[in-house]
Amino acid sequence: MSDSEDDIPLSQINNGPIISKASTLILNAAPIDDSTPDPSEARTSVTISASQDKESSEDSDDIPLTQRKQQLETEKTLASDSDDDIPLADKRAATKQIMKQESSDDDDIPLAKKRKVQAKAKEVPVSKVASSPKRAASTVSTPAPSKKAKKDEVSKKKLKKEEEEREIYRWWEEQTSQRAGDNEDGGDGVIRWTELSHYGVLFPPEYVPHGIQMKYDGKPVTLTPEAEEVASFFAALLESDHGKNPTFQKNFFSDFREVLAKNPKNPRLERFDKCDFTPIWHQFQLDKERKKQLTKEEKLKLKEERQKIEEPFLFATVDGRKEQIGNFRIEPPGLFRGRGDHPKTGRLKRRVYPEQVTLNLGKESPIPPTLPGHKWGKIVHDQQATWLATWKENINDTSKYVFLAPNSSWKGQSDMKKFDKARELKNYVDKIRASYTADLKDKLSEVRQRATAMYLIDRLALRAGNEKGDEEADTVGCCSLRYEHVTLEPPNTVHFDFLGKDSIRYENTVQVDHQVFKNLKLFQNQVGEGHAIFDRLTTTGLNKHLNSCMPGLSAKVFRTYNASFTCQQQLDRLTNADDTLPDKILSFNRANREVAVLCNHQRAASKSHAQQMVKIEDKIRTIKYQRMKLRKQLFSLDASIKKKRPDLAEDESDLDDDWIMQHDIDTIAKEREKVQTKFHKQNEKRKADGEPLQPDSELKDRLAKVEDLKVQLDKERGGDISVAANMTVHKLLDRIARLDDRLNATKIQATDKEENKEISLGTSKMNYIDPRIIVAWCRSYDVPMEKVYSKTLVQKFRWAQDIPDDWKF
DNA sequence: CGTTAGACTTGGAACAATGTTC
DNA sequence: GAACATTGTTCCAAGTCTAACG
């Protein structure tokens, strides 16, 4: 293996913008069906589309960006109005191949049958049990006194675990027909439960005034507790982005003044810029510090107190089964943290009292107690609903709900239903693609717009894009795209730039089907700046049509389908059975990343990312440096090794003399400092213990040793290699091998980190990738599940674990 | 029909817990 | 063992989509 080669990807990855990756990926994942019903009529555009697909699928095979650009440019110059002159001899074949691959995945056993595969079901508990004795065995070596206690603890844990295991409702093992939600015609009229009881919701504690005064115009002012609370909400955010956002400030101040005016004891504060919340802010900083300083015991005690309060709220009983509840807390009052350019951001979100809360309970269930002096707003018995409690929030007048946790049967069932639906789309997608491709030329602009939108939703995994009001942030999805969000570059390149959900920017450049390009141009010209491109299309209309293509189909299913499809495809492509575990994990992360890119799941890069990269690069070099030294020792012991192991004769890349020099200097400096702090610390301890101090000569001796090291390093740099007396060739080879492992692992880590800096993997893992894909992958490549799923995700996807080894999406 | 309400999924950021390193 | 980085969890805003409404 050559180091220089290995280092290439990291730097290159940097250059590859997400955009191009995303576009190639999707076009690749979604081959166009070139068997249009009417070949003579469809020839031109269909041919083109096929050829484009071919090209873009080539793109995806890691052609550097620069080359891709060239390709694009050549195409530009080549392209003329007559579409016919593009040769396509082998291009069809390529498209076919992709299609074939897709349909060969199509080993679709009817879903109903698949569910019954339970051979694995028994294995889960077995492996659990097997792991427990192992743990018990490892405690045997511990000292006698604690032995018994530990053993007790272990068996207790084991028991608890087994009990938990028994308590799990394995709904996925039951006859499908018994389950709600399996109903083809959606969830309407479905009874979800017959018995439902829970302890209601947990209210946040009443406000406790701190008495710290804010200042106005430089002078401290006294506020009523109610006003102080609101001032404190803002004070806490003083240094955050929200606190600095003018809209946030304006909205906060207007609501703050309203609260102030409610009580004549409050001062009149006219101007925001005269307010000074820093005294409160400082107090909060202090509080945080103090909280951090608490001892372990104190923290534990606080935690226990919290848990004791929560305990009754944790579970609900549904038809006799215990189910975990997700969010049983009423949201505390605060300032509304709207995202992006939300016109209401900063407004006061008021405290919620029991009178505003509706509980959903079984008729027979006891009504839980609530805050003293209060009563519940309403008690209902809605057996079609899965919410346990609901209330209205005052900012946007929208409903908030308490639901069961993600590991519950209700959530699990609808999750499974969602993925099964996406999987079902596989069987329809070719037909649907053919049909919208044909519709791209429909005379009815309504139909044509719908087809164009479907193309985008399918190819780019765009969201549907419902209408939004003036009181919300201006964000869009497919149906609500406006003129200015799309830039067209002939012959068929489209630039997208708009704010999507959560005001996350979607920026992408794609080559599209010629007819799509023409349509977009036409629509744009018809509407003009500031107007919706698809002016005849609504999400409702689109979904109605989709539903007629396949029962239960809606726009979001395409996102799920394309995400899961991509993941399956990438995992198959990237993983090798004989890879090391870290390599497999890297492959997994890459597949996961492809999906995240496709769905445009972003995160803010950490402020220290660049520094962190420098640090890790330095770590890599340090390992290489150590390796180099070992190599040299090896050759000085036995020169013949050079011939036997030519791989060891090669120099480490990017280890130049300057770096080595600097590294040695740094090493010495660090060593010196270490010696000194250690010396002083020891003396401080001695002082505290009343022991005699170590003399300064001791420090000098130790520092002299550092100097010896320096001399040795200098000598080694000069080519003078010293080998320890007891060192052997075998030992050296062994050490080098271990360094190589470390080097490899660190490099992988670096690559992963860089590729990941602005991409958030969590959302796709949690919501878009069919967990059965991942479970099957883990099994066939012998990767422990915990390496890819956190504890909670394992629980959430329990239903996905009883599948055959060869399960494919 | 278009509009709104309601219920449920999806999403990034903040926060907490845990792991790593000096 | 404290400081830092990483990972996992919680929070709650912001979507989707269907049903009900007028």
Task: Report the helical percentage.
Answer: 40-55%
CATH superfamily of the domain at 176-403: DNA Topoisomerase I, domain 2
List how many beta strands DSSP finds.
15
Q: How far do the termini sit from each other?
A: 36 Å
- Give Rg in angstroms: 32 Å
CATH hierarchy class name of the domain at 176-403: Mainly Beta
Secondary-structure-based class equals: alpha+beta
Number of helical segments? 28
Model description:
- InterPro entries: DNA_brk_join_enz, DNA_topo_DNA_db_N_dom1, DNA_topo_DNA_db_N_dom2, TopoI, TopoI_C_dom, TopoI_cat_a-hlx-sub_euk, TopoI_cat_a/b-sub_euk, TopoI_cat_euk.
- By secondary structure, the chain is an alpha+beta fold.
- Among the domains are: 113-167; 176-403, DNA Topoisomerase I, domain 2; 440-553, Topoisomerase I, Chain A, domain 3 (Alpha-Beta Complex), CATH 3.90.15; 611-748, no CATH class.
- It is 54% helix and 7% strand.
- It is built from 28 helices and 15 strands.
- Strands 10-9-11-12 form a four-stranded mixed sheet, with no helix packed on it.
- It is globular and about 85 Å long.
- Residues 1-147 and 180-187 have low confidence and may be disordered.
